[in-house]
Design brief:
Blueprint (H helix, E strand, L loop, with lengths): L2 E7 L3 E3 L2 E3 L15 E5 L8 E6 L4 E7 L2 E6 L5 E6 L4 E7 L2 E5 L6 E6 L8 E2 L2 H10 L2
The protein binds dTDP-4-keto-6-deoxyglucose.
């Protein structure tokens, strides 16, 4: 069973006008066909979002403005915090990764590229079910 969390570094095209980052489907940075884009902003201070894992969905998370923390848990009792605070960095989540998003700065805009359309049946929102699915996949 594949469970992947990977930090991504994007090439920035800069000149005296500023910077530009281009991301394409099925590239090294985005190893899937992008079917959906959504973004999270105006987050209530202190809030924790996420609290779920996906069964099939692959996603690249990019904090294009401000910062936030992505707390990832592979079901082994060790949660790891990834700070996203640069538009030229991303985080690839693939397979069963329980994730929370927290510590959003006031100006945070978290952009997400997703491999599929929205489907609530792909979410595991119960932590014990998540642990059972991880154990089943081993
Ligand atoms: C994830 C993390 C990183 C839609 O109608 N379409 C969509 O594409 C999405 C993503 C959400 N929604 C609706 C469903 C809920 O009524 O927007 C509402 C908030 O969604 P949710 O509570 O799932 O949001 P987060 O921030 O907890 O999680 C989101 C994504 O849903 C999830 O896939 O991995 O961001």
């Amino acid at each position: 069973m594949l469970q992947e969390i990977k930090r991504l570094h994007f090439v920035s095209h800069g000149d005296d006008r500023g910077k530009l980052i281009a991301l394409e489907s099925l590239s090294e940075q985005v190893p899937f066909d992008i079917k959906r884009i959504y973004y999270i902003f105006d987050t209530t201070p202190g809030t924790i979002r996420g609290k779920h894992a996906h069964v099939k969905l692959k996603q690249v998370l990019i904090c294009v403005s401000g910062y936030c923390v992505i707390r990832c848990d592979l079901g082994n009792g060790k949660a790891i915090d990834y700070l996203l605070n640069r538009p030229d960095q991303g985080l690839l989540l693939e397979g069963l990764v329980w994730h929370d998003m927290l510590q959003f700065s006031k100006d945070a805009v978290l952009l997400v590229l997703a491999s599929d359309h929205y489907d609530e049946s792909d979410y595991i929102r119960d932590y014990d079910t998540f642990l059972k699915e991880v154990a089943r996949g081993k």
